[in-house]
């Protein structure tokens, strides 16, 4: 069962009963609500913020849907070795304003993983020399 706010009509009747001198506990029992809810309704009524219920639910992380998701899939079919930041920059240049974190979450949800290279070996050295297959034995001298 989903939680839903009390109707504005019920909130108005509770506030009117409290303003007419009914105690919080008596109003709570009469209208079938908790005493804490009656207190909150009284506070809202006194603060002149109105009795409208607040939004239910919290922050939802942004996700790529629809045309933006299709654009990412198309770009990955054309070129599969994107970095997340490069893909985010490419999307921004195409008019889709999206952060790299949103792109990363989308790729994870699609089951895409990124490896350093296809062989699973160490990446090459920055000087461009060959990469040793295994560590050299320090006891042997050259």
Automatic annotation (TrEMBL):
Biased amino acid composition, Basic and acidic residues: 115-124
Organism: Xaviernesmea oryzae
Organism classification: Bacteria, Pseudomonadati, Pseudomonadota, Alphaproteobacteria, Hyphomicrobiales
InterPro entries per UniProt: Homeodomain-like_sf
Biased composition (Acidic residues): 133-142
Location of region: Disordered: 115-142
Superkingdom, natural source: Bacteria
Signal peptide: none
A UniProt-annotated Pfam family: HTH_23
Name of this chain's protein: Transposase
């Amino acid at each position: 069962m989903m939680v839903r706010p009390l109707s504005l009509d019920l909130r108005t009747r509770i506030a009117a009963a409290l303003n007419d001198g009914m105690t919080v506990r008596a109003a709570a029992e009469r209208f079938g609500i908790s005493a804490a809810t009656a207190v909150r309704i009284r506070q809202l009524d006194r603060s002149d913020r109105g009795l409208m219920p607040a939004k239910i639910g919290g922050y939802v992380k942004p996700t790529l849907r629809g045309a933006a998701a299709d654009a990412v899939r198309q770009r990955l079919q054309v070129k599969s070795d994107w970095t997340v930041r490069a893909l985010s920059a490419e999307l921004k240049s195409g008019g889709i304003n999206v952060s790299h974190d949103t792109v990363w979450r989308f790729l994870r949800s699609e089951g895409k993983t990124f490896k350093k290279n296809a062989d699973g070996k160490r990446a090459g050295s920055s000087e461009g020399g060959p990469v040793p297959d295994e560590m050299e034995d320090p006891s042997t001298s050259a």
